[in-house]
From TrEMBL:
Its EC number is 6.1.1.2. It comes from Gemmiger gallinarum. The keyword Nucleotide-binding applies. This is Tryptophan--tRNA ligase. SUPFAM superfamilies: Nucleotidylyl transferase. A motif ('HIGH' region) lies at residues 10-18. It is found in: Cytoplasm. The lineage of its organism: Bacteria, Bacillati, Bacillota, Clostridia, Eubacteriales. Homodimer. Transmembrane segments: none annotated.
């Protein structure tokens, strides 16, 4: 079976975007692949975090992944910092990555513009750590949102170059943007992607939002003034985004949705999107409450996950250390 690695940062409670673009698919992929899923806490340090909040969110995120159907027996669920090999490999890869390559990353440019007061080295070398996350497990496939494809490209470049210099070491990972992994846009500014760290709480629906909150946020969602439910991402980004969400949850095509709401106002449409979303999230939320209350269970899962991930990752680091010429003692 092919191996999958994917991660999510504990930078906030996951949004509907994270759910539809990543988490929901992670659960489905377990049927056909060997999966490693990671809470990327080291990556989240590129943005200044309140230590207690980061600790709390890391456990919450792991619980939410379990609630969303990640099976900790057949898949490996772990926290990135619990597997030190990621950081070890990251240094070696950094020494095999060019400054120019990293300077071209659009996420670096975006994030440094967003946080001009904290343009740190970690933000710049983020793609190297991400390459280490992937290459350390010889992952075949990496399910990512469209926003991550440039990072995947650089991971492949780093792997290819390393293999060329030191001999075949890493599997070249393929990006995998699942068919249903639509990009969900902000409800407040529908030309921007929905982000969990957006300061505007009306821009996102959280996976943990209750029904009333979901309804309120969708009611406020920015649309347009022509009053017709029609898919046109360029000219009607708000309505099109709501249609994408509705389509992903109901399986209906855009044409079917247009027909369903022909002659009806945005009010009815928004209500339908809200109800469908709340219905879809309800079972995950119920399970989340139960799992989060069982700290011993969650911590046990994460300990087991770290041990299983480390067994693979430590072997790769030893191999890479040997290949680049670091002295190993008997
Ligand atoms: N709006 C989105 N639509 C579809 N997929 C999305 N993803 C994120 N936002 C959307 C996918 O979720 C996975 C985990 O993301 P992440 O936590 O590693 O970081 P991110 O992509 O930076 O997500 P956010 O929510 O925007 O976080 P912040 O606000 O901290 O930057 C990834 O596979 C991503 O593609």
């Amino acid at each position: 079976r092919k191996r999958i690695l994917s991660g999510i940062q504990p930078t906030g409670t996951p949004t509907l975007g994270n759910y539809m673009g990543a988490v929901r698919n992670w659960a489905l992929l377990q049927k056909d692949y060997d999966c490693l899923y990671m809470v990327a806490d080291l990556h989240s340090l590129t943005v200044r975090e309140e230590p207690a909040a980061l600790r709390r969110r890391t456990r919450e995120l792991a619980s939410l992944l379990l609630a969303a159907g990640i099976d900790p027996v057949n898949s490996v669920l772990f926290v990135q910092s619990h597997v030190p090999a990621h950081t070890q490999l990251s240094w070696i890869l950094a020494c095999n990555t060019q400054f120019g390559e990293l300077s071209r990353m659009t996420q670096f440019k975006d994030k440094s513009a967003k946080h001009p007061d904290n343009v740190n080295g970690g933000l710049f070398t983020y793609p190297v750590l991400m390459a280490a996350d992937i290459l350390i497990y010889n992952a075949d496939l990496v399910p990512v949102g469209q926003d991550q494809t440039q990072h995947l490209e650089i991971a492949r470049d780093i792997a290819q170059r390393f293999n060329g210099v030191y001999g075949n070491t890493f599997t070249l990972p393929e990006g995998y943007v699942p068919a249903a992994g639509a990009k969900i846009m902000s409800l407040a500014e529908p030309t921007k992607k929905m982000s969990k760290s957006d300061p505007n709480v009306n821009s996102f629906v959280l996976m943990t939002d209750d029904r009333d909150t979901i309804v309120r946020k969708f009611k406020r969602a920015v649309t347009d003034s022509d009053g017709v439910v029609r898919f046109d991402a360029a000219n009607k980004p708000g309505v099109s985004n709501l249609m994408t969400i509705y389509s992903a949850f109901t399986g209906k095509t855009m044409e079917e949705i247009e027909a369903e709401f022909a002659g009806k106002g945005y009010g009815d449409f928004k209500m339908a999107v809200a109800e469908t979303t709340a219905d879809a999230l309800a079972p995950v939320q119920a399970e989340y409450g139960r799992i989060l209350a069982d700290k011993a269970y969650v911590d046990g899962v994460l300990k087991d996950g770290a041990a299983r991930a480390s067994r693979i990752a430590d072997r790769m680091v030893a191999k890479v250390y040997r290949k680049v010429g670091l002295l190993q003692l008997d």
